[in-house]
Write a structure and sequence with these properties.
transmembrane; transferase; membrane; UDP-Glycosyltransferase superfamily protein; glycosyltransferase activity; alpha/beta; 482 residues; Rossmann fold; 8-stranded mixed beta sheet; 6-stranded parallel beta sheet; globular; 16 strands
Length: 482
């Protein structure tokens, strides 16, 4: 992320700017370290040894992801309104759009009446979608974003034909000043400003390692007021769903929200779409010209932009490819760094943006999936998709990742977001070789099937909305539960 450069007006203002930056950085590092230690404490008890099915009590008191529990069938049907920033249309939709589509299709298939107020991801005019229990209304303004007034007009008309049981918003798709007007509203946070500040700090450290004092770090200065503002308006939403355990801790410990109003439900991906398929992987390699004699095939997917960590990966892989000519890299995605990857020579194949149906084949063609992101917020679906396809992952050691996804070293490799640590992790994967990587991939598959499937996610959300409507559903286990 590029930073704005300004000429200091005086030595005094420069002094206070530097002083403010130092205090801010120390504060952020201290709290990040605290949360990281908390995530490490969670790792002391490996997932395979923890039996959360023994939980007995009110689900609102659960301090672990609801995905870890097994909810039984329900015969009560809900009418739910959803506000989402975009709805996936065409190739290469973003993670939030894919999450929304997966979740609401799954809830609709369970017999619930779902009404989504959004805009198409390609920002082009589209007809509304009505597929069984799923209804998607496109309400765009002149810029292609959600016109919240228009969306609320449609919302009110649908509500008049039978009141909604609950309203759900993906992040701030339903603005906080509108949320105050809705009696029953829950929000799922795919990223919070505390995590975004962490991201900006990492990008500053990477882009300005020698700390040039002439740079006032404008974006870091602007981040703290944004965080304070966010903490204040979060109380406008009744219930909060986090997609990682670390975000849940932040909302309780730093945002000071009541523990009973904060819940963790992890994202899931379609378990029928992402499955291990050795034959499909072999055909994909052949299709894109991967030599048969390579030692290891690595892969990276997503938008090829700066904040996704591609400058970091480019530098690290440049070092790796010189020492290990048998390592091959497949790059799926589009963006400014596409051209740079082609400069790395014949060991790199840039595929461009893949259609959703091609993604599963892409993962199956790999020995290890690499996610170099500099954005420690939310929960990247590519990690879950790769693990669901039976592949180990190589990813930064952010609290949201090591506390929720890569909770065991058997699932892959983690690194600090700097070139030296990244190279060391890549070297470890190369040293282990295809056989060890395959074993790690099997462990990944076993874990994600128990936690990150669309079925587990939809079941948890279903129980959440039922609990919010009728407290009898807050008790676990019910006679119908597994």
């Amino acid at each position: 992320m590029g930073l704005k450069h300004q000429t200091p007006k005086s030595s005094s203002s420069n002094f206070f700017s530097c002083r403010y930056s130092t205090i801010f950085t120390l504060l952020l590092l201290f709290t990040s370290f605290f949360l990281f230690l908390a995530s490490l404490r969670n790792l002391q008890e490996p997932f395979f040894w923890a039996d959360y099915t023994q939980f007995n009590g009110d689900l609102r008191d659960a301090k672990f992801p609801w995905n870890k529990l097994c909810f039984g069938p329900t015969f009560e049907k809900l009418k739910i309104a959803v506000f989402s920033k975009t709805w996936p249309v065409g190739a290469a939709p973003g993670g939030m759009e894919r999450h929304a589509s997966t979740l609401y299709h799954a809830l609709a298939s369970r017999g619930h009446e779902i009404h989504v107020f959004t805009v198409p991801s390609d920002r082009r005019p589209r007809w509304d979608i009505h597929e069984g229990n799923l209804h998607v209304y496109f309400a765009a303004n002149d810029h292609g974003s959600v016109n919240i007034s228009l969306a609320f007009d449609v919302f009110n008309k649908v509500n008049e034909n039978g009141a909604f049981d609950y309203v759900h918003t993906e992040s701030v798709s339903l603005p906080h000043w509108r949320a105050k007007m809705v009696p029953n509203v829950a929000v799922t946070w795919h990223g919070i400003w505390y995590e975004i500040m962490h991201s900006k700090l990492l990008q500053e450290l990477l882009s300005n390692p020698k700390w040039q004092l002439s740079d006032p770090m404008t974006e870091l200065h602007e981040a703290m007021p944004r965080l304070v503002e966010e903490i204040r308006f979060f109380k406008s939403y009744t219930q909060h769903i986090c997609i990682s355990s670390s975000a849940g801790e932040v909302l309780v410990n730093i945002y000071q929200l009541p523990q009973r109003n904060v819940h963790v439900i992890l994202n899931g991906v379609d378990e029928t779409e992402f499955t291990p398929d050795q034959e499909a992987g072999a055909k994909f390699r052949e299709k894109y010209g991967v030599p048969a004699n390579v030692s290891i095939v690595m892969g990276v997917a997503g938008r090829l932009v700066r904040d996704k960590g591609h400058p970091l990966f480019y530098e690290a892989f440049s070092s790796i490819v010189r020492r290990h000519p048998g390592v091959f890299l497949l790059v799926a995605g589009s963006g400014p760094w596409r051209r740079r990857y082609t400069e790395l020579g014949p060991n790199v194949k840039v595929l461009g943006a893949l259609e959703p149906l091609e993604l599963s084949k892409f993962y199956n063609a790999l020995d290890v999936f690499v996610n170099p992101t500099l954005r420690p917020q939310g929960l990247d679906l590519t990690l879950i998709e790769a693990m669901q396809s039976g592949k180990p992952v190589l990813t930064p050691n952010y609290p949201s990742i090591v506390g929720t996804v890569v909770v065991d070293e058997e699932f892959g490799y983690t690194f600090s977001p700097n070139v030296k640590s990244f190279v060391e992790a890549l070297e470890s994967a190369i040293r282990d070789g295809p056989n060890v990587l395959k074993r790690k991939g099997l462990a990944c598959k076993k874990y994600v099937v128990s936690m990150f499937t669309a079925t587990k996610m939809a079941s948890a959300y279903e129980r959440f909305f039922l609990c919010m409507k009728n407290t009898k559903y807050c008790q676990y286990p019910l006679p119908t539960d597994c």
